[in-house]
Structure formats: structure tokens, C-alpha cells
User: Fold these one by one.
Assistant:
Number 1:
Amino acid sequence: MSTQSTRFAARLMVAPSVFVLFIWMIVPLAMTLYFSFRFYRLLSPERAGWTGLTNYTWFFKAPDFWLAMGNTLLLVGGVLVITVVLGTLIALLIDQPVYGQGPLRILVIAPFFVMPPVAASIWENLFMHPQNGLFAAVARGLGGQPILFLESYPMASVIGIVSWEWLPFATLILLTALQSLSSEQLEAAEMDGASGLNRFRYIILPHMTRAITVVVLIQTIFLLGIFGEIFTTTQGGPGSASNTLPYMIFKQAIVAKDIGRAAAGGIIAVILANIVAYFLMRGIGKNLDA
Amino acid sequence: MGKIVLKSVRKSFGEVDVIPGIDLTIEDGEFVVFVGPSGCGKSTLLRLIAGLEDVTAGTMAIDGRDVTAAAPSERGLAMVFQSYALYPHMTVRKNIAFPLKMAGLSQADQDAKVTAAAKVLNLTNYLERRPGQLSGGQRQRVAIGRAIVREPSAFLFDEPLSNLDAALRVTMRQEITELHQSLKTTMIYVTHDQVEAMTMADKIVVLNAGHIEQVGSPLELYNTPANTFVAGFIGSPKMNLIEGPLAAEQGAHAIGVRPEHMGIVSEGGWEGKVLLSEHLGSDTFLKVQTVNAGTLTVRAGGEVRLSHGDTVRLAPLPGKTHRFGSNGLAL
């Protein structure tokens, strides 16, 4: 299979796509890096030039920068915990033979097909709205005061909405992992005297670690860049309580029209993503080795 | 102790009666083999005994205790699965120790028992490996190790050798037999291979379509098959069954003659042409198209040199003919 000539041929044939992908990645990265050291505001195009690290220092000195960094990580961590834990439980549930299993599974997966701004709007207006929302109606029905979700608990609300969107993905991956577990292993554990809880802990959960790792890695990539849900609901507020790094970059680029600062924010985001990726791979990457 | 008594045990999956009703007593310390063609319900019967399936009707008792509704873990049985069902993420040591851990034994007791079992099964050098790094035979031994550490009242084997190659199968067959002789625990062994059944069993239970066709020692089944099904299933190559006027001459619906009891004679007997001749060295298997008795299989000595197209005359050895009535039962 892997003689010298086949290895060479393989590399030769892979080379064009590697080259294209490399260009695809390096050109935007290089441009962002370039702009991040430039003074470049769309409102005053005549003023241009190198500014050194000013764009970066602005970010680090911004009063809500560390809050935004914390919120970004909180969003990623919170959604990961909720989707993995609930996803595992739902997967265990819908793996049971029940009447209407097919439609049930489609229903469980359906939220994934809803576009993020639409999902956020639905949650904001139909569920969390203090006058018209379902939660407010329930609270009033029970004789209480409606909770002002987006005002009092903005980050928790955003985490809830994003979790709802990503739960189907986690459930789907974890369900397929669950279905690949041989029933004989579970029966053997049953014969060995393992209770339901012990079968889950010693047989099912170890079998699912690889799928959980995949869910965590893939979701982390997407969750670091969550923007639409925040834009649609809290707009980073109240104040800057639900500000995240992507939302800060958006504000610099589109609202303040300061491309230099936005580029610096982008580079900070790339560095943050790499730090997160490093710790993730060190922590759970070994689960991917067969 | 491990006496298992089944009383009119029935199992249906929806409308289908897989086991219409079975009465069976397995004595303590016996090596019992369930044998039958695929789909005869032998694995289902084993799973009913294990508790992995619920019985539809009937009762089951182990050592006099009614276990019809008991959970698998409460029955004190250990099972070796066809796929071995080892836990892939655990080392061999942890695999074998798993039932002990679930039983809440101390770490020291677990280690002692695992070490002892590993010694018996020649697994001492492999304790820290994972199942994926072992050969088929070694995995088989780990599965047996996991079963014996629990000191169960009976072992259940579900076609444990069917994933092994022919040479290893013979070795493992002997190892399991030796294990039974040293442990003296009841063993129930399911197979579709009549050679395994003949060589290992104290008692063979021949199953067909959920019914017990015959229960007996291997030689009883060979010498006095109760019906045409057992006659055809036990023994290799299969017994020749001849129907029609030749059978009627002897007052039967069908007569059966085993290939090894078919003699080549110089005159008389049934004339026929050799269709196929297989020389195995020690034996020669002949397939002969006779004029009156249909196609017969003959097991002749290795010195017989007949080939395709030769004419032979065949006659059953005296006293070696089995007679069956029109209902298939032996007369």
C-alpha cells in the first residue's frame, strides 16, 4: 500500500488542495494582521498609517473587554455542559423502543434546522417576552411576577437559546454512538450483576467518550463565534452585561467603522481560539486515538 | 450446586411461538449441550435460563429456588457470549474483576481471584492488555475467566467457539472440557455443531423448531435415535434414510443406515454407480447413486480405490439398520 512511489503520488495529488486551502486561510489572516497594526477608520479615510499596538491596547483597556472574554468562555462552557448532559439523557431516552420512534427523533432534531436569528426571535418574543411570552403567562398563572429574562439574566438567557439550538446536534451524535454499543456487552454486564446506573457508568459512558469528545470539539469551534443570537436579542446589553468578543468586534467594525480595531479584535479572537483548542486537545484529544 | 429445572417453559415473540413448551431437568455438575439447526430456539432457551429474556409461561427453578421472575444477576449464573462481549475500554484484569467489583468485593479479594483465574487460563502475562490486543483464543479465555471468578452455580455458553478457526476450536473444546472436569460445575453449552456436542456433552438435548426431539448421552443418541430428525442430525456424514418399498420390506416407513455401517459387497445388496469419491487417507467417502435406494453415502476404508462411474454393490451391516414409522419415530 505505502511504497515510496505511492506515497509520493499521494502527496502530489493532495498538493493542489493543500495549496488552495493554505491560500484560503493565510490571505485573510495576513490581511487581518496587517490591518490590526494600521489606523484605518471608514469615517476618516484620509487619515491612515501605522499605529503600532494602539489597536490592541485599546481592546485591553476597554472597560468591558475582560467581561466580554469571560462571557465568551461562559457561553462556550455553559452550552457545552448543557448540551452534553441533556444530549446524553435524551439520547438514552429516544434509544428506547417506543411507539412513533421515527417522528419522535425527527422532532428532537428539528431545532437544528431553525436559523439562529429566527430561533433567537422565537425565544425572545414567544417565550421570554415579559408581556406576551409563554413563561410570563405561566408565571402569572402561578400568581408570580414574570421574569425579565433578557434584562435580569441576559447571559443565562443567551446560553439557554444557544443550548436549545445545539442540543439536537449533540443528541444526534451521542445517539449514534449509543446505537453502536453491542447489546451483548450490556447483557454481559447485566449477568455480571451491574445495576442500571453501573451499566451506564462503566459500559455506556466509556463507550461514548469519543463521541462526546467530537461533540465538544465541533461545538467549541462554532460557539466561540456565536453572534446572531446576541445581536437579535440583547445586543450585548443591558449595558455590556452580555457582550462577547465577536459582538465587540462587530461593534468596532460595523457600528464604529474602525477596521483597524476590529482587525485587532479578530487577531485576539484567533489567539483565544488557539488557546482553547490547545487545552481541549491536551485534555480530551487522547480520546480520539483508537 | 446447580440443578436447573424447567417446567412447561414457553416463549413467544408476539404471535410467534419460538418455544411452545419445554420440560427439562439439568442435574448438578452435568455438561449439557443444546444442539440443533439454526433457528431451532436453542439460543433463546439459553437466554431464558440466563434471564435475559422473560418466559411467556411456565416456571424455572435453580437448586429448588423459583427464579422465573428473577433478574439475571440474582440467578447466580455466568454466561460466555458468542462475541465474548468483553469490555473494550478495560484491561483484561479489569474485565475479569468486573463481576467481583459489582458484587462489592474488596480490592485485595478481587486481585487474589483474578490472579488465580489468570493462572488457570494462562492469561497471567496479558492482564494489563486490552481485549483489542488479544487473539481470538485469548479473548475467549478472558470471557471464560470473567465467568469463573464469580463461582457461579452454572455456566452458560452461547456458541463460544464459532468465531475461532478450526485448529483453535479443537484446542478450546478440550480446554473447556478440562475446565468442566476440574470445576465440576453445571455447564450448559449451545452449539449447532454436532461434533462439539458429541465430544463435550454428558447429555445432549437435540432441539428442533422449539421442541426437544431427544435427550440422552452422545452414544445413546448415536445408537438409538428416537426419530428421523435426530438420526439425521447426529453423526457425520449424515445417516442415509431410505423410504419406499425397501423400507416396507422391513415393515417400516423409512430405514436408516449410517454411512459407516454401509458395507461394499461382491453380490446381492443394492447396485449403484459411484458419483463422487473423496479420499481422506484414513477414510473414503463415496456418494453412490443406487437403482432402488436413491443416493447413498458410504464411509469406506482408506484402501478402497473406487472413482466416478464405477459400479458397486452396497448392503447394510447386520443389525445396524434403524427403522422409523410414518410419523418419523423409531420403531
Number 2:
Amino acid sequence: MSADLEKPVAGGGLLDRRLFLKKGLSFSVAALTVDSASAADWQQARSPWMNEPGEPFSNYGRPSSHERKTIRWVMANSMAPGNGVSWTPLHDLEGMMTPNGLHFERHHNGVPKIDPKQHHLLIHGLVDNALVFSVDALLRYPMTSFLGFIECGGNSNAGWREQPIQTQAGYFHGMASCSEWTGVPLSILLDEAKTKSGAQWVIAEGADASVMNVSIPLDKILDDCLIALYQNGERIRPENGYPLRLIVPGWEGVTHVKWLRRLRLTDKPVMARNETAKYTELLPSGKARQFSFVMEAKSLITNPSFGHQLAQPGLYQISGLAWSGRGKIVKVEVSADGGETWAEAALQEPVLAKCFTRFRIPWRWRGGMAVLKSRATDETGYLQPERETLIEQRGRHGYFHYNAVVSWAVSETGEISHVYR
Amino acid sequence: MFIARFLVCFAALIVLPVGAEQSGPGLGVKASETMIENWSLDIFADGEGLPAGQGNAVAGKQVYQQYCLLCHGVKGGGGSAEELAGAEHNLIDNPPDKTIGTYWPYPTTIFDFVSRSMPLSAPGSLSNNEIYAVTAYLLYLNDIISETAVINAVSLPQVQMPNRLGFISTFH
């Protein structure tokens, strides 16, 4: 059995995804032994921190001081520092959830300092009862949780460039993060406001300095949207919409309006800047796709990826993330030979709809050049496209909704770079 | 019997707050007309929501130079912020120029966006006349209206944008 598992299942040294499950991490190669000549402090009976009391308790924990490189990368307009983005460092993270302090940000004019006692949500327009809700009132409503991703429609847009961008995976694809969002289903609040016939759209607006607005079809709002008050168990952070934000599962980030203060039911979209001039995709024909809300299936290998260095030939675990705005990920295939052959990766449970799914597969790197890729398939049968295919369909000037296969080249010395094929 | 049933129904109407038969606790408070009016910033493509006031490009140039030029550049291009005018390429060129004149489908979007979001340093500070004027100036810079055309709640929605039919809704 174990001998079978160690047989490559695809080119470039990909091994059966069950290898680690069956054997743990007991490699069949000789175990590395510690060089006794360089016997270090850690081989003594007690390490230094075992000889004195540790630090006291803390009211709110922080990462180890040794992990300070794991940060959001901020890219903002120097003339307007509140207008820009910060990226989740996907290349430094494991598992499927994003720590709250590392969730990506996109602000149009800074993070408002909202006093929750002064913040209200207005629901009006084509409803029988125009209603105002205080935050305290919303906290009394029945809540539900959605574990899922939010991805900016502009995520991965460097992929449209002629030359492959050489930057860490997170600073290329990290305008996507995954959290447990807990709050009040909008269907409950609209039930109370009583939707009038003829209502087809909901215009959502935030209480930031940009008063950002966007139109969302009412059917989606009633289907699965939430007024979220909590993120990963704690109240939402200011930069993610405190005290409340809209959650629109599987749809582009701009629809998940932060600092939400108003929902207006209408028979037509408002045609805001962020649904006409932006978040629309220009096609080679000169026409542009509009209301392209759904984030289609995407995956990428986060480890190893750009900036990582393979220390020596041997057994590695390839690990990455896959997600789809249409539902569950059903399959992720990985290639270590530039797409000549593919092998199926193991999907970490739980596999949830519209949520990050962690995939992993063992790989024996023999020290040569290799090109690592992943491709996801979701439950609708949609297969993540190769870059060539996406560009054939959409051209190179759509800017938004780039979801092509990502390729990482491994050099003979174990350095990782970004390539297009 | 009839009276008794009527009384029961009537009592229920008095006792139960709005929404009590629904899935939530019914804590929404009726919004006043004043609040709704104050908060309704939306300007629709058909002109719904446009306020009183007016302006033309001559006046709008002054507004632009005072509040917009620093980031958006002289004549709507070449600044640190988004290119608004002065397209040298059309939408099928490589690279395309996506300005108000080549790309934006509705003139009302300019008013909606400027009135809610601009200028970045003091959003909400422009008067309706200033917003109409700077909207006129941006349309003039894009060769869509003349320098003296008056832009107001009636004329703005009637401005024909070159790329009005350039969008395909992918949502069904």
C-alpha cells in the first residue's frame, strides 16, 4: 500500500494525495540527523524561557514578535492615503480562515470612526413600512453565520499584464479573505418592512466619507444576504465595516457594503459610478460586461509560491486555496509539469459553498525545474480557465474578474517565480 | 358573535407591535419623511433625485480648478487620480482610454458620485449649483455639450452619452 502511494501520480513528482494521511510525515528517505558538532542551545535540558516565569496575561492577544512580517501590504494613493487597498498575505497563512487583522481592505475615502450609538440602518423605498434600526435593536434579532470569502472584483488584476508580476501570492491575489460572518438575515428585516410589488433592486449605501453606493438585485438580498455584526466571533473591525456591513455571499466585494446605513428598494439600479465606470469589464468588442456580480471559481498554490525558497530536494506538501462564488469546490487538480499532467489534490474539510477551501498534495522535488499550477472545478461543473482561454474570451482590458490558472516556476536552485505557462 | 370576533381582532391589532407575527422581534422604528429625504442622495439615470439648481461649464471650470485639478490634472487628465477626459484612444485600442466621454453610460452618474464622494478632502461640501457646474464642465471637456449649455435637473438626464449602449448586463 505505502509503496503504491509513493509512486508518482502525475509528472514532475506529484504523489498520491492520501500519502500524508496514511503515513503521517514519516518519509521513506533517511531521517535527517542533527550535526552534533554544532550542538546548539536548544539541545540543552532546558531552553532559556524554561528557566524564568513567562509574560503575564494580556487583554487582547497579538501574534508572536517573530511573526511581524505577516502583514497586510498597503497600496494607497499618496495624495489620498484613505483611498487604496491592503492585501491579505495569503502566502504566509494556512487553513481556510483569515485572521481579522489580516482581512483585506478596500476603502474609497478612509475608515470612518463610527459611534455605534449614533449609527442607524434605514430601509425605505418600495416598502410598506420605511423603518430605522439602531445597532442595539439589530443585536436583538435572530442571527445566522455565513462562513465564506469576500473577494474584490479587482483581485488578481495584475494577471492581465503582458509580463507576469513578480510579487508574493498575497500581494497579487490577496484582495480575497475568508471569515465567519454573523448577523441578521435581510429577509427578516424586509419581512418587517414589507416589500412592495415592483421592487427589483436594493441600493445599498455606506456611512463612510465616500458614501459608497451600489445596486443589488432584490432576489439575491432575499436569498442569502446578511447584515453582519460579527466577524470570526468578535464585533466587526472598523476597517471591515464596524458596526455593520452587508454580506452578499459569493458576489464581488464592492457589493458587501461596509458601514451600511441605508437600503433603498427600487424598480431600477441607481447606475452608480461603481456599477458603470468601475466594476464593469471592457471586452475586445468595445462593449462592457455590467452587473457581473459572481466571483467565478479560482485557485492558487500559496505554498510554495513566489518568495519561498525550497531548501533542498525532497518531499514537500503543496498547499493552496480554492473558492467559487457559485457554490462548493468539488475538485482541485495540481500539475508539477506546467500542465502536461494533473493529479487530484486532497480537499480539507469542511468544504463549504462560497468559502475558501484548502487543498493539499504531496510532491517530491528532485531538484530540477518545474512549473506548479492548480485548477479548480466547482459544483456547477465550471472549470477555472487557463490564462490564454480567459484572454481569448475577455481580452486584456477588463481589469476586473481575473480568475485564470496561476503558474509558479521552480528553478534548479529552488527559487520560485511567477510565469504565465 | 360577530361583535365578539371583531373585538378580538381589534384587541390583537392594538397589542401586537409592527412585525410581531414575523420572524424577528419587530424593533424597526417608523422612519420620518424628513429623515428619508435627508438621507436620499441617489440620483437615478432618469433624473429622479436631482435637486434644484443649475450651472454651465464656464462656472464649472472655476469649481474644477479649485477642488478637482490637484488630483485629476488640468482638463481631466494627467493627475494622480482617475482620468476623466482627454481620451486619446477609444475602447477597442490597446490600451483603451476609459474616460467619462468614452466609457460612462449616464451623465447623472457624475452628479451622483460628485455629490456624495467629492472632493475627497471635504466630501459633501459643494453646493448643488457647484455640482451642476462641475458636471457641465466635465461633459464639456469630453466634447459632449457646449461651454454655455445650462445643466439642471431637466437637461442633465437628456444629455446623450457616447457610450450609452456600451454595456451588456450579465445578470439574469
